[in-house]
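Protein Record: Sequence and Backbone Structure Tokens
======================================================
Tokens: labelled as protein backbone structure tokens, with as many entries as the chain has residues.
Task: work out the structure tokens from the sequence, keeping to the layout shown below.
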Amino acid sequence: MLLAAAVSDETTTDPEDHVTMLRDPLRLSLYTFTIAMISHALTLEFLQQIKSKNDWNFLRAVTEVEKVNSDSLTKLRGLVKFNEKLEDAMHSYTQLCITESDYHSLQCQASFHCCALKPIERIIQLYSLDSYDPETLQSTERPRTDTSPLPAVEFLVCPSCANTAQLYHRCYHMKYHLLKKCEDKLEVIGTQHPEYSPEKTVEAARKCRVWLNKVLSDYMDIWKKIQNFDH
């Protein structure tokens, strides 16, 4: 009963609150894109299908979301010149976490141009070598190299570069991370309701307004933070 109540609470958020939260054009575009991503998470073919149909509302939403995300990446690149090893690692590894560092006597490894003299207070840890197609988000084989990549890498950085790197990484893998959020949500609903068909599971996820609004708010906050960012 408690589980059913929790699911019910999540899917029956006040419709007025939900509508109010979608009055912002960018938020509405992100909502449209996220709703499509929930369906895409089921087969990894939905985005290609809807693009081929030239769905104007979807294409407009995708264009706006991609532009804001791309502009955010451009701004961050202009603020900090990451060293090549860190930038390559952020592109290759899909997961990033930041921890405290005790190596205060060392210098920041994130950018030799801006802050090599700043003290170390954070450690950037990058892991999960998930190679994927940036359009379809389907898994791809990693290019073969002479050496096997490490399962994880670390960089000792100052707090400012840690913050910038985290924002950059989240924007760079934005669509992939969103896909994973949707896949996780479908898995949770499928576990709670094994009797649901795949289509009904997708429908249930689309009605989880509390979860949806949190996803939207997370990305809106990231873009707003970057827009107001002053390194």
About this structure: Residues 1-9 have pLDDT under 50 and may be disordered. The first strand starts at residue 95 and ends at 100. The chain has ten helices and three strands. The two ends are 50 Å apart (CA to CA).
